[in-house]
Design a protein that fits this description.
It is found in: Cell membrane. This is Cation:proton antiporter. This protein is mainly α and about 425 residues long. The chain is built from 17 helices and no strands. The longest helix has about 30 residues, at about 150-180.
Length: about 425
């Protein structure tokens, strides 16, 4: 008899997305809360609705979902915003993450997690400092009053933060944890090599697919080109043992940046009178797309990413064990509190000390509050912890702690923001940057 498992799982996922969105709109709460709860309830109590052994095919699910999850968020970053807030995004995505992982790893000297080596601490904090773009967007899209500049910082951080955390985990933490030793200089150089090569490949793909966009004149074809670009950039980068996530993010942002330049040119009559070398290199005069078609691409990419995240949530539901949560409750709360404090301190740069550096503008206390509690964890943390070899003695600890932190961050941070915007802040949207 023919198996209808793929059809059933698709119905389940789409049905859960539709139901969660509809109920969230009525209850005025973030839909990610309902997605997580619904995924767990369906997986545990309605097994007929999930007829595929998702944990068994987890690696395949990861490869399928990663490009979709990151593509949508990358498309929402505008070139003008990157130019304006480039240093701030770099601080959030690279400097703050590196300092946070270092601060977390220093807990080794206090013996917070018994039995773990220093390399294991680096891995554990790299996993649990990675924010989740889909969860963050799901929560923040529910609230009015968040300034555009803060949204840019959050989007930029959620992308770059993940890329930095992945490089720190795979090229420093994991080798150190599994071998017990590491050459700090060599590991740092390897991480920098991966960072540079990934960005280089990404820019190359970005230009190639930007030129391909000039050959297409319909929104569906342009959407498919972006999807192909995301998957191809990820696969090629992973094949050459560099960061697939950083490569695909760079590729999409690069393509989008050149498209933004084209759109700006259409509104700038002076640019039409002369052509610079760079404009000729971009086939100046041949438009890549239109703002109307890009709006369609934004929305569709967001929905694809949403569906991909739900697939990861179903795997997360399989990893949830109330008994294990209780057994490791001290470790879970310790990790949650430590990562929250580290994030609050790293975000304080924007609240109190930003004026000391011209390129990084302060956002005030409210901006600091939003940035701190927008650090929800999610799909990437689950993906990374799954990548730890089964032979690692403390893998269960890593899985349970990470799963617990993901749940606490989404519900804890999300509820904090929801309560603030629902009961305490009624003002209309205003610019949060202070000058």
């Amino acid at each position: 008899m023919h198996s209808f498992a793929p059809e059933i799982i698709l119905i389940t996922i789409l049905g859960l997305v539709v139901f969660s969105d509809a109920l969230a709109n009525r209850l005025k709460i973030p839909s990610v809360f309902l997605l997580l709860i619904g995924s767990y309830l369906i997986y545990m109590y309605v097994p007929i609705a999930v007829p595929i052994d998702l944990p068994h095919y987890f690696d395949t699910i990861i490869l399928f979902c990663i490009p979709l999850i990151f593509m949508g968020d990358a498309l929402h970053l505008h070139f003008s915003d990157i130019k304006k807030h480039g240093w701030s995004i770099f601080y959030l995505a690279v400097v703050a993450v590196a300092l946070s992982i270092t601060a977390g790893a220093s807990m080794y000297y206090f013996g917070i997690f018994e039995g773990l080596t220093l390399g294991a601490y680096v891995s554990l904090f790299a996993i649990n400092m990675a924010t989740d773009a889909v969860s963050v967007q799901s929560v923040l899209s529910r609230f009015k009053g968040i300034g555009h500049d803060i949204k840019v910082l959050i989007e930029g951080e959620s992308l770059g933060n993940d890329a930095t955390a992945v490089i720190a985990f795979f090229f420093i933490g994991l080798p150190w944890m599994m071998s017990g030793t590491i050459d700090a200089g060599e590991a740092t150089l390897d991480a920098l090599r991966v960072f540079a090569v990934s960005i280089g490949i990404g820019i190359g793909f970005g230009y190639l697919f930007y030129m391909m966009m000039k050959l297409i004149e319909d929104k569906r074809g342009e959407l498919f080109v972006f999807i192909i670009e995301a998957y191809l950039a990820y696969v090629v980068a992973e094949h050459f043992h560099v960061s697939g996530i950083l490569t695909l993010i760079t590729a999409i942002i690069a393509t989008k940046a050149w498209i933004d330049m084209d759109m700006k040119r259409l509104d700038d009559e002076e640019a039409k009178k002369s052509k610079t070398f760079l404009q000729k290199l971009r086939l100046h005069g041949i438009d890549s797309t239109t703002s109307e078609r890009m709006e369609y691409i934004y929305e569709m990419a967001k929905e694809f990413g949403y569906i991909a995240a739900v697939m990861i949530f179903f795997v997360l539901a399989e990893m949830v064990s109330l008994e294990k949560f209780w057994e490791y409750k001290v470790e879970i709360f310790a990790m949650f509190i430590i990562t929250t404090l580290i994030r609050a301190i790293s975000m304080a740069k924007f609240a109190f000390w930003g004026s000391k550096l011209e390129q990084i503008k302060p956002v005030g206390f409210e901006g600091w509050f939003i940035l701190t509690f927008s650090g929800m964890k999610g799909a990437l943390s689950i993906i990374l912890v799954h990548m730890i070899p089964a032979s690692f003695a403390y893998k269960e600890l890593f899985e349970v702690v990470t799963t617990g932190v993901v749940m606490l961050s989404i519900f804890g941070y999300g509820t904090t923001l929801w309560a603030y915007f629902t009961f305490f802040r009624k003002a209309e949207e205003k610019k949060l940057f202070t000058h």
